[in-house]
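Single-chain item
Fold in token form
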Amino acid sequence: MDEQNRTPEAQQPEAELSEILRIRREKLAALQQAGRDPFQETTYTVNAYAKQINEDFDAYEGKQVSIAGRILSKRGMGKAGFIDIQDSTGRIQSYVRKDHLGDEEYEWFKKYDIGDIVGIQGEVFRTQKGQISVKADEVKLLSKSLCPLPEKFHGLKDTELRYRQRYVDLIVNPEVRDTFIKRSNILKEIRKFLDGEGFMEVETPMLVTNAGGAAARPFETHFNALDEDLKLRISLELYLKRLIVGGLERVYEIGRVFRNEGLDTRHNPEFTLMELYQAYTDYNGMMDLTERLYRHVAQAVLGTQKIVYRGVEMDLSKPFTRISMLDAVKQYAGVDFREVQTLEQARKLADAHGIAYEQRHGKGDILSLFFEEYAEKHLIQPTFVIDHPIEISPLTKKKPSDPNYVERFEFFMNGWEIANAYSELNDPIDQRARFAAQEEMFAQGDEEANHTDEDFLHALEIGMPPTGGIGFGIDRMCMLLTDSSAIRDVLLFPTMKPLDK
């Protein structure tokens, strides 16, 4: 009995699946013996797509087209039948008649399976039931599917399996395909916006000797040709700043970075980061640019400046809130760190509020821990949290009015950090002292501390103009704009635990 005539089951028993695989291979062998090996096909001329035909039927009606795609369903098959095929733009029906194809071709056609890839030439028309279709004059098998797709009533629903077999997920779950089309459009609009702002897109090394620019543990590797230990970059920052020194006054990069950290709904060890740097501006300029960028991308991709994520609306059309970290902690934790004068006082407050800290943490670190515990979750609408403690900001300019704090902001939406920006530190003497403090933190057990980068210091000594810089988490931006619940939903091939572990 042919596979397409079987009663679909939610999960096919192993014995039945083995029989299906055998049947499909037997069909392939028969095709090959008849000189019809589909894997020998190399090209096929396509001049129309499902979406075009469905959306502009009046222009296509009565015209001959050549389409290609994967068979997703079959109906009929006496002297005529219907198949639905899916191409890169969507699905369309084809009406196939025996007297159009001829007896021999129709007999071969009847043996094609769901999942097979075919090319169809024929006339566009509308059936008596009003279904837009292509009346086939030719059906050509272009590739044989040897493994069945998940049956249509239950589909590919197992989340882990969807991530591992994204190629199947894209075939059977149209909303997944739509998410990644939207992600591509998001990146396109980011580039369009920045190009319009006079920025230059660049590429910098992924393999580095010193993985700096962020608080994260790097992945390590070894370059055999030079017998040198290298790391995968954790940020884009330090090389982009070198380009500012070199006179490229507005630069950006969109690229993968790698952090040796855990997996959860918002973290993947490799992810897409965008960093940009602009000479002769500061973190206020970066806030203004962020507002314009987010509004542009949302309007271009979604057609609105109001994002609805998991049922919660976030309005980009209004001015984004700006609040200092000190004020955020005072508002949400009821603790005013302006009155905290000593590290001992900060530790007592942390103990009283159940905030865990390490002995190496300074007063500013404890302020940041309070912010993470009490404030972050409340920052649903677009919010810039400004003026961070110097202890957690080794690459940032001090505030002239208070050297214990720096000109830095983090951009929050939906309680998530979406971007991180500075008035960039361009004083090489101060930067060297900050690196020394980071080295001391590393010696005390902080594996995420930065290391001294002598070449970067030399670049600063050559002279870097006043500069504003920002890093955007592209994946989290895509999650918000596609209403995706986990970062793995916006990564085509997320990191997965091996099946044998």
User: Anything to note?
Assistant: Confidence is low (pLDDT under 50) at residues 1-11. The chain has two domains: 3-153, 172-320+381-489. The radius of gyration is 29 Å.
